[in-house]
Structures are given as C-alpha cells and as structure tokens.
Design a protein that fits this description.
The protein is of the alpha+beta class. 18% of the residues lie in helices and 45% in strands. It folds into two domains: 30 residues; 117 residues, Jelly Rolls. The chain has a six-stranded antiparallel β-sheet, with no helix packed on it. A five-stranded antiparallel β-sheet has the order 7-6-9-4-11, with no helix packed on it.
Length: 153
C-alpha cells in the first residue's frame, strides 16, 4: 500500500468504528425503552434520558431515566445497582413510593426523594387508577455497575 493511501484507510476504519458505535448505541436505546409488565398487567415504560461519565469523579457516571406509569401501573419490588445513589423527581401525576422500612408516601408533581445505595424500593406505583404519572430517576453510580434495576424475589 502506498503512503498516500494510508490516510484514506484510516478515515474509512474510523468511519466504520463510528458507524458500529452509533448502531450499538441506537440498539441499546431501543432496547431500554420497552414496556415492563406491572403487578396488575398494566405497563410501565422506562427510557434512558441521559448518560455520561462524571469527568471530575473518575469511575463515576450519571444516568437519568424517565419512568412512565400507565393509570394503575406499578413496578415490582426492586433494588438498584449496588453503588447507585438515586434522586427521584415526579414530573407529572402522583407516585406512591416506599423505600426500605420508611413509610409509604404519595409524591406529586414537583416532589422529590432519594434512595441510598443498597436500598430496597418495595413500592413504586402510579397512585391514580385513571391518570398517567411520570418520574425522572437520576443515578450517580460506579461507571460499570449493572444492571440499573433488579427485581426482589
């Protein structure tokens, strides 16, 4: 191969790698936005909203997910990634929540709560049987700590 052809080869390889990464990210984003069956066969939909490494805290990342609850929908009892500190913000509707041995609380649009690493989220559901609800959950966690959510058996 002639030296003059090497930049073209590098550019082609670079584009192939970028295309592969873009396709992988698109596939991952599509797979995350799938409905999950709730306790009473109503669906919740979880969609990744944002993900980035935290540049001034090596090994840590920030991930934000939107959780849409259909009327009457609920999440199974669950835990989150071991290292995850979570901040939850109710975007719309009302969410009934219980973390660890705390009391069951109904949070309305604009209300927030947090979950410590290792917490058990035993109740997370739409408080309304007739209106949808949405929350934003922001995770600060170790970069390679997966999965984000695990059902409690």
């Amino acid at each position: 191969m002639k030296d003059k052809d090497k930049p073209i080869l590098r550019e082609t390889q670079s584009m192939t790698i970028r295309n592969f990464i873009a396709a992988t990210c698109a596939t991952l984003a599509t797979s995350i936005a799938v409905p999950v069956l709730a306790h009473d066969d109503q669906a919740e939909t979880v969609k990744k909203n944002f993900e980035a490494a935290i540049p001034n805290i090596p090994g840590k990342s920030l991930i934000a997910v939107e959780v849409d609850y259909a009327p009457g929908a609920a999440s199974p009892s669950h835990t989150h990634a071991r290292s995850a500190f979570i901040y939850a913000y109710v975007i719309s509707g009302a969410i009934e929540s219980k973390v660890n041995d705390g009391e069951t609380i109904i949070y309305r649009a604009g209300d927030t709560w947090s979950e410590q690493p290792g917490a058990i989220h035993s109740i997370s559901r739409n408080a309304s049987k007739t209106k949808p609800a949405k929350l934003l959950a922001v995770f600060v966690l170790d970069t390679n700590d997966n999965p984000l959510t695990t059902p409690v058996k």
